[in-house]
Structure formats: structure tokens, C-alpha cells
């Protein structure tokens, strides 16, 4: 997996230091992956800002509880299957993502049926992206069931 074809577009800042540390740890392990932070300000405005941020040819992956869920091996495979497509993983703010935006997403991805604060969703997504990259490379990071 080439992390440079992945962007995370996230509404809201990471305010908790310990979450920020985790985000930075995994971001460094995924060189080239870009994180774009957008201001929070209501679902409709946020949806406009997200749409304006998306690049032509980039596939929108909306993070939402009700999306498709995977185990880590299947997620790694799904990412591999997306070939060289450029992916924008979009994380909503406190109000969540606009339903119309989710409706036009190429892929709706759930990290769990439970709801997480956006900061934790960012950290969990990064960790799973790193895990997927390690699985694809046959690295020792992923030990299923361990
Ligand atoms: C606090 S949550 C928003 C909750 C909001 N009440 C809702 O119904 O969407 C903030 C963002 O984190 C992400 N998120 C939270 N839990 C998630 C999960 N289990 N799977 C995927 N994304 C999640 C989503 O992008 C969501 O828009």
C-alpha cells in the first residue's frame, strides 16, 4: 500500500495530547499520508468544505458507524483491491457527516457499530491503515488473535 495515495480529511482538531501523540506515531509510520483538518461549523458547512477539499479522481471514503465493517485482514485486502486509486477517508465532526455526502461516498467504512469521538476515530483509522500496510508487506506487526 502506498500511503501517498491516501488522505484523511477530518473535521475538527485533535485537542487531547495523548490522542495527538498516537496520531503522530502512526502518521510517521505511513510516510506520504496526508491529513487535512477542516474547521467544525455545522454539518452543512462542513459538507461544503469537504466537497471543496476533495480532488478530482479521488475516491470519497466516508467513515460512519453504519458503514461496511471488516476484520483487519479483509480491510488490508480491500485496500489492496483499490489498486492505485487515490482515497480520501473523511471523518466527521461532533455532529457527524452530512447524509448527502455519505450518500455519494464511493465507500462507507465502519470501524465498529459503536460511536467514537472524531479524535479517536482518526487514531483508530490510522492504526488500521498502518496494520493493513504491515499485513500487505508480511511484517510482524499483525498477529491475529494475539
Ligand atoms: C462523534 S462522531 C459523530 C457522531 C454523530 N452523532 C453521528 O451520528 O454521526 C464523529 C465522527 O467520527 C467518525 N466515527 C465515529 N465512530 C465511528 C465508527 N464506529 N466508525 C466509523 N467512523 C466513526 C465518523 O466520521 C463521525 O462522523
From TrEMBL:
Assembly description: Homodimer.
Any Gene Ontology CC annotation: cytoplasm
Keyword field: Cytoplasm, Methyltransferase, rRNA processing, S-adenosyl-L-methionine, Transferase
UniProt-recorded name of the protein: Ribosomal RNA large subunit methyltransferase H
Enzyme Commission no: 2.1.1.177
Coiled-coil annotated residue ranges, if any: none
Stored SUPFAM superfamilies: alpha/beta knot (SSF75217)
One example GO MF annotation: rRNA (pseudouridine-N3-)-methyltransferase activity
InterPro entries: Alpha/beta_knot_MTases (IPR029028), RlmH-like (IPR003742), tRNA_m1G_MTases_N (IPR029026)
A Pfam entry, by short name: SPOUT_MTase
Binding locations of S-adenosyl-L-methionine: 63, 92, 111-116
CDD domains noted in UniProt: RlmH-like
Major localisation: cytoplasm
Known catalytic reactions: pseudouridine(1915) in 23S rRNA + S-adenosyl-L-methionine = N(3)-methylpseudouridine(1915) in 23S rRNA + S-adenosyl-L-homocysteine + H(+)
Purpose of the protein: Specifically methylates the pseudouridine at position 1915 (m3Psi1915) in 23S rRNA.
Cellular compartment(s): Cytoplasm
Gene field: rlmH
Family listed: Belongs to the RNA methyltransferase RlmH family.
Amino acid at each position: 500500500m502506498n500511503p501517498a495515495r491516501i488522505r484523511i480529511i477530518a473535521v475538527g482538531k485533535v485537542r487531547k495530547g495523548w490522542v495527538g501523540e498516537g496520531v503522530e506515531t502512526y502518521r510517521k509510520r505511513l510516510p506520504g499520508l496526508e491529513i487535512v483538518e477542516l474547521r467544525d461549523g455545522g454539518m452543512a458547512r462542513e459538507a461544503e468544505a469537504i466537497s471543496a477539499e476533495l480532488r478530482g479522481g479521488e475516491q470519497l471514503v466516508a467513515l460512519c458507524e453504519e458503514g461496511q465493517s471488516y476484520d483487519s485482514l479483509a480491510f488490508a485486502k480491500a485496500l489492496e483491491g483499490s489498486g492505485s486509486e487515490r482515497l480520501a477517508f473523511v471523518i466527521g465532526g461532533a455532529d457527524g457527516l452530512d447524509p448527502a455526502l455519505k450518500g455519494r461516498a464511493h465507500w462507507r467504512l465502519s470501524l465498529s457499530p459503536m460511536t467514537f469521538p472524531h479524535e479517536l476515530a482518526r487514531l483508530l483509522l490510522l492504526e488500521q491503515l498502518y496494520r493493513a500496510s504491515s499485513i500487505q508487506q508480511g511484517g510482524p506487526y499483525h498477529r491475529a488473535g494475539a
